[in-house]
Specification:
With 381 residues, the chain is of the alpha/beta class. The chain is built from 13 helices and eleven strands. The protein has one domain: Peroxisomal Thiolase, Chain A, domain 1 (3-Layer(aba) Sandwich), CATH 3.40.47.10. The strands form two sheets. A nine-stranded mixed β-sheet has the order 3-2-4-7-1-8-11-10-9, with helices on both faces. The protein has a two-stranded antiparallel sheet with strand order 5-6. A hairpin with a 2-residue loop joins strand 5 and strand 6. The longest helix has 17 residues.
């Protein structure tokens, strides 16, 4: 079994880009990652990729150069990009290839997850009469969690404000204007306790990551980052998600818990060893919940940690240093590779104004996708 290193990362900015397709953004991300790795497209032996809105991401090879390489398409809702990264890494670990690339891209219309249920195979009337449950589900989940663990709505505002501040330091972010806690709490209530500015937005963007056998990495870079683990897990009982709710489900069987535990076990690294963290913050409540599910604190400890600044860039648990989904938005196919892009920049010491102090050595990323699939990734220098 081979160890795997990341030698190049590339990102197309997240936002809205009139007249530019998701595939064109993917091309830009690929070429950025290749340049970062110091390799050419002809050096890439295989590729993996995913998207919600692009049915055949493999067609991107015709836009970057037809070399005849294998290309595997993947889709796992919000965990798509981690699934692409895992497929790429596993092929190198198993010795099938020496060097490959994972790419993700998407271009979502405004309100895509609430106004266009056809994207997930549901009839238009489902949204027209108010039954599409994306924001409602997250609101109910956050409300129950806050009630059960004594966490205030003010803490959600602190999470969102922190992510907007971090996004203002990120030239690739969608939302780059800091917002105060009062502005966030005063924005329209969508689904209690979540206001408008506590949610991420569906948007557009792309990201790519070049990987190779770890023993070859120093041919390409003096700062390799090693991919210690990528683990994907689903629920063990029933389903507990947006449009597939059936059977009783206990809170302690969240797939994020299983994915994080498996990743830490495979990497031989514990939560206490992690220096910089990326968590799926589809809404501010999700970041709070995932802090505990991933093992970084006990349930109910989040309020004090957040109030004390632990999750800030200079804190003991810096979370979503690039602004997370709240500042970047979520083009689903690219979102998890954006997380890896940020962790690689942080571990290399290349994150600029948002650089975590003290030369971080270990990074962790988590994704959660409907209907109950989670992924956890661990990187190290």
């Amino acid at each position: 079994m081979n160890d795997v290193a990341i030698i190049g990362v590339g990102l197309h900015p997240f936002g809205r880009f009139e007249g530019k397709t998701a595939m064109q953004m993917g091309v830009d991300a690929i070429f950025a990652a290749l340049a970062d790795a110091g390799v050419d497209w002809r050096d890439i032996q295989f590729a993996t990729g995913g998207s919600w809105t692009v049915a055949n991401p493999d067609a991107i090879v015709g836009m970057v150069g037809l070399t005849g390489i294998p290309f595997t398409n993947v889709f796992n809702a919000c965990a798509t990009a981690a699934s692409a990264a895992k497929a790429c890494a596993d092929a190198i670990r198993l010795g099938d290839y020496d060097i490959g690339i994972a790419v993700g891209m998407d271009k979502h219309p405004r309100g895509a997850f609430t106004e266009d249920p056809a994207l997930v195979g549901m009839p238009s009337w489902y949204a027209e009469n108010g039954q599409y449950l994306t924001t409602k589900f997250f609101g109910m989940k956050a409300n129950k969690y806050l009630h059960d663990h004594g966490i205030s709505q003010q803490t959600l505002a602190k999470v969102a404000a922190k992510n907007y501040r971090n996004g203002s330091l990120n030239p690739n972010a969608f939302r780059r204007k800091p917002l105060s806690e009062d502005e966030i709490l005063g924005s329209p209530m969508l689904n209690y306790p979540l206001t408008q500015y506590m949610f991420c937005a569906p948007d557009e963007g792309a990201a790519a990551v070049v990987m190779c056998r770890a023993d070859l990495a120093e041919r390409y870079t003096s700062k390799p980052v090693y991919l210690r683990a990528v683990e994907v897990r689903t629920r063990r009982y029933g389903a507990y998600e947006v449009n597939t709710t059936f059977a009783p489900v206990e809170e302690d069987v969240a797939p994020t818990v299983y994915a994080a535990r498996a990743a830490f076990e495979k990497a031989g690294i514990g939560p206490e060893d992690v220096d910089v963290i990326q968590l799926q913050d589809t809404d501010a409540g999700a970041e709070v919940i995932h802090m505990a599910e991933c093992g970084f604190c006990a349930h109910g400890e989040q309020e004090k940690l957040i109030a004390d600044g632990a999750t800030e860039i200079g804190g003991a648990l810096p979370i979503n240093t690039d602004g997370g989904l709240i500042a970047n938005g979520e083009p689903i196919g690219a979102s998890g590779l954006r997380q890896i892009h940020e962790l690689v920049r942080q571990l290399r010491g290349e994150a600029g104004d948002r650089q975590v102090p003290g030369e971080p050595k270990v990074g962790f990323a988590q994704l959660y996708g409907a209907p109950g699939t989670a992924a956890a990734t661990i990187l190290s220098r």
